Amino acid sequence: MTLTGAQILWEALVREGVTDVFGYPGGAILPAYDAMLGYPIRHILVRHEQGATHMADGYARASGKVGVAIATSGPGATNMVTGIATAMMDSSPIVCITGQVGSKLIGSDAFQETDITGITLPITKHNYLVTRADDVAPAVREAFAVARSGRPGPVLVDITKDAQQGTCENVDWDAAEPHLTETYDDALPGDGTAAEAIEFINQAERPLILAGHGVMLSGAEREIAALAERGHMPIAVTLLGIGGVAASHPLNLGMMGMHGEAWVNHAIQEADLLIALGMRFDDRVTGNLKTYAPTARKIHVDIDRAELNKNVRVDVAIAKDLRTALQEWIPAVAQRDRGAWLARIDAIKGDAAVRDIQNLPDNGHLYAAHVINDLWRLTSGNAVVVSDVGQHQMWEAQYYKHDRSRSLITSGGLGTMGFALPAAIGAKVARPDAEVWVVVGDGGFQMTMAELATIAQENLDVNIAIINNGYLGMVRQWQEFFYEKRYAATPLLNPNFAKLAEAFGIRAATVTKRSDVAGAVEAARCQNRAALIDFQVEQEDSVYPMVPAGADLHKMIRRPSPIVETAAD
Amino acid sequence: MVHTFAVYVENKPGVLNRVASLFRRRAFNIESLTVGHTETPGVSRMTVVVDTDEYGARRLEAHLYKLVPVRRVEDITTAPSISRDLALIKVAATGEARTQVMQLVDVYRARIVDVSPESLVIETTGTEDKIDSLLEVLRPYGVIEMVRTGRVAMARGNVPSRRAQMRVRSGSDGRGDVSDCSV
């Protein structure tokens, strides 16, 4: 049978199990769009190609499947760059398909020509320039294999217009099977062994498990809980590790790092063994490397060997799929009582509960932390929350208690403002039965708010909570702490978000009092369509605790004590 | 410490760019890089010399393996190996000087490959040390132009690489040496 390159593209996508794609048409990708109508694919028309990539990313993170974004050449392709870089930093498997000018025009500065494989080379796991219809199937199949395999990530396939229009007789799908050099799971000299890791674990008096995104990427949620329970060892999670271990698990201490709870960071500094699993010792979780976990031996398991001994020198470095590694360890880990160590961590907590903003009486101010904690209670902790980047992201991480895997989707590594709204659309498309909430700041929302139109056109039930403090809040906080409150370019004059949403046909409410939070959230929940709530919160509120960038992990700015708080009021 | 890697890559457009871009964005400094065909059609071999420590070398090897067109990486720094550099050196040499230069060329077992009234072109192959040394003695006569290929290197005898040893152990290949780079 003779197929065009465009038909082969869709046939290949269907064979990879793709049912939904996020895209925006244009000249160089038109042949592919024309052929799309013949295939069982749902196409979500976005309003900006950056949105398409974040949607594919949100889709991938919510479902574990590969997300697909599609765009035309030139500006369509370059608009994808931020989304691709976001997926790269957070190991999210997406495949981006871009149209390219005809192969004979490449290099001639043709209309809407850009070297997108060159541009995305450092921010993709791999990319392909396809110039013949014959090469479409092998490129697409390999792209999916690369995106999924090992440490997942984005792959871009750039297909020239003539490759889409050209034909190919009898596509040999078996011959298109990818051949990849797999290197993980093979031990190399210098690697640590399971026996060494188990010996260290069994000897440790004050062990601490550091759980990252890899727990979910590897599907090791059960194994990590089993390891912790067997060894009676506490767990600290990274931002992207939230949900990999239930927040309500008694051994889960909570989030570590710059805005982690004080007792978590102190526990890291006092531990005699760190067991780092599927995390990469980002500067936001280590603080000053010279003083990081000074008394701890360190075990590090990551599927990406290049992460081992990168930021932190470790004693046992294992490049392996996390689930496989833990299954091997667990039977050999000694069952021990480490009550003394857990009691020590409890003692470190000290007056933390008193300082907790949730325990403060309602003083008439609307605090973001209250809004998020109420949202957690009202959704029974069952929502998929997609947060943006900034203060609200940290409050979400602190006050929404995620018990389920893949229930928090956020841009961690790249810190991409504008991620949340489109990523939530992707999450909702991937999991239509899930209750999806966007938690977003007033700044980040305005970066990609055009996707409200996508929500309306696709009739998606995505609820949006804008944590509106009239500032680029996290930058303002840094200016308050480190730049003598000189608020350069951080105050925002915002539109009326409720009216804006209504213009898109999305129901909206504005909330300024804590007593109105529950009503607004319930009203949003009880309808089967999108809703937006503009929570106008305390303007100059800050996220605590905070380890200043590059400072020692245990030297954090603590929450103000309630006495100070009352006096200030 | 200077590390030498032999990197086997698929001979496809843009591969050199991918490897060079990796070194740049991960902030490794390339001392030299050479590329050429191998005994296997479709596979090219790069010899890359990098100044980094042991941890850096291991991470670099891991990063190289993450590039899809990279088939195999060998860190041959510590393996017994032969390394060669080739240089063409154009020296100003007339009259008395010309005889002296020709004697030096003999001593270094180099060759004169071009003669013109004002200058000579000398071809020499050897370790970087030898070429540096030749260059030093020629410099007083006036080096007009010079080009060097950078280091190419090969392990001696039938010494299996670290990676090849691993493959033999895991039984996935069984041959273990250069032949397992065939695609």
In short:
The complex is a heterodimer of chains A (569) and B (183). By secondary structure, chain A is an alpha/beta fold. Chain A folds into three domains: 2-169, Thiamin diphosphate (ThDP)-binding fold, Pyr/PP domains (Rossmann fold, 3-Layer(aba) Sandwich); 194-349, TPP-binding domain (Rossmann fold), CATH 3.40.50; 368-540, Thiamin diphosphate (ThDP)-binding fold, Pyr/PP domains (Rossmann fold, 3-Layer(aba) Sandwich), CATH 3.40.50.970.
Please give the number of β-strands of chain A. 20
Helix content of chain A: 25-40%
CATH architecture of the largest domain in chain B: 2-Layer Sandwich
What is the top-level CATH class of the largest domain in chain B? Alpha Beta
User: What spatial form of chain A do the alpha-carbon principal axes imply?
Assistant: globular
Q: Which regions of chain A are unreliable across 5 or more consecutive residues at pLDDT < 50? A: 563-569
Sheet with the most strands, sense and barrel status of chain B:
5 strands, antiparallel
**What is Rg of chain B?**
20 Å
Radius of gyration of chain A: 24 Å
The secondary structure category of chain A is alpha/beta
